Amino acid sequence: MPTSIDALIGQTLVFGIPGPRPTQRDIKLFRDTHAGGLILYRINFRSPTQIKQLIRDLEESLGRRLLVTVDHEGGRVVMFQSGVTVFPDNLAFGAVGKTAHARAQGTIEGRELRRLGMDVAFSPTVDVLTDAFSPNIGIRSYGRDPRVVSRLAVARIRALQRERVSACAKHFPGLGPATLDPHLDLPIIPVKWPELRRRHLIPFDAAIQAGVDLIMSSHPLYPHLDPTPKTPATFSRRIMTDLLRREMGFQGVVASDDLEMGALRSLTTVGQAAVLAARAGHDLILCCHKENLQRHVFQSLKKAYQNGELSEKNLNNR
Question: What is the pLDDT of residues 84-113, one digit of tens each?
Fold first, then answer.
């Protein structure tokens, strides 16, 4: 039986697996780390029947339920090749500006994803675009007007959650101005507090008021928000706890983006990144692809607890 600290660490972890069916190695990973969440990608999908069987087989082998998650934004960010409706990217919805369209999208997505066994859709993207070139967000955003972004995102969030699929507003506190893709590099976003509040926080505040279940953080450095060296939003207690929790009043689940991204590799190891994310205030730690890194995350969190770097409060932030 796992010790209480093993179980507490495990409930914060969301891992992916490398194929369309759980192998004995995958099962052992989830048993050893007590990981409570599963994220699914294109490599996991063959058919609607198969993806439901994958979830069922893994849960039955473990003897427990998992939090099943997927990046499902529409457009180019869709992980399942059938069984779902592929809607346009958010920028097309923003150009039309019809609240009813976003609401319909959320309703249809919610019903389809729930039938496939999903608990969480890591969407919608509520980042607000600026004049800066955006190689990562771009068409994933509803646009430049925070009021339009807010209105469409709220309609979609409420519709998704009405169908019993948790929505996730991302990427806090705003990835729209990033001129580098954090999957590959470390963006530095020079936004200052007045602009952040006037533009980028508005959709997040609207999502919170609408009852969004999750908010996902982002990996860039925001030197005017937290000047601490080598402290992206993912590691920043000033941003993730003081701002999001205390000032904005968010009481839901805070998820990290994938810790395997290139933005964080330039700063520290994935294990230390997990520790810093937990200390900053994250409830869910995503490490999505490589087994050795997933095990490193678990061991690093456990060691940090044992040496006093983390407390149970850090692993159970809410």
Answer: 999 999 999 999 999 999 999 999 999 999
